[in-house]
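Escalation from tier 1.

The customer reports that the assembly of two entities below gives different structure tokens on two consecutive runs. Tier 1 could not reproduce it. I'm attaching the input and our single run for tier 2 to review.
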Amino acid sequence: MAELNVAERQAGDVTVLDLSGKITIGEGSVALRSAIRRLIEEGKKKILLNLGSVSYVDSSGIGELVSSFTTLNREAGQLKLLNLTQKIQDLLAITKLLTVFDTYDDESSALNSFK
Amino acid sequence: MQAFSDRVLCSGGGQRHGLAGRLSDGRERESFIVADETTEITLASRIESIAEAATVASQVASRLRLNEEAAFGLDLAVREAVTNAVLHGNRQDASQPVELAFTDDGTELVVTVRDRGEGFNPEAVPDPTDAQNLLKASGRGILFIRTFMDTVEWSRHPEGGTIVRMTKKR
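Tier 1 run:
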């Protein structure tokens, strides 16, 4: 099984990526990077990452979230986060990134925020 | 040069015993022994070794009955220290070993990671939480180690390379 599974669905003009598994150095981080690059190439620049089923993130994974965020911003897009687990929330707090990311606990609020 | 092949050794005084006989993927464990409170493993300097190190860390945490929070912190600190050793210390030269050891005396768990690199000054690593560094893609590993372990120090090994020594009170 892949370290990180990425399932894509469309909600209006927002693309939701349901992530499950680990965003860690190597395969997991690369899978996320590849998915974000592909969406940008397809012109899909409003992206909501659903992290509810992400069991583990390391510093490389946190870095990949930051890279995704800055890449989307550069491309006049938006990246937001949905369903942070407690552990991910803790890591984002430690790194002071909770103030950087737009995070949501429920999907409809997250989707509405893109409008 | 031939690549290092995985785990080796273990030593320490007293009675030796193995961890569970099989790895989580069903492979038979080879030449990996826990000797009382010391577990040692030598890894090749490649990305895949980081997950291997984390697997050993979680086995140690389980054997020591660490609570979930402590086990998570140990796992993450070991991943980050081994990542630094593989990427920055040994620059992914697979012929260069990364040595990982866990020693527990009942009150404190000591974890050491040795690489063969030139070393670095941890004080010179930029603070990733400074506003100007917040959006950088890397540089958070040491912050996680400092956060989740009680102490951490870096030193030069007398025979070369860098050792990071991390401790966690039991």
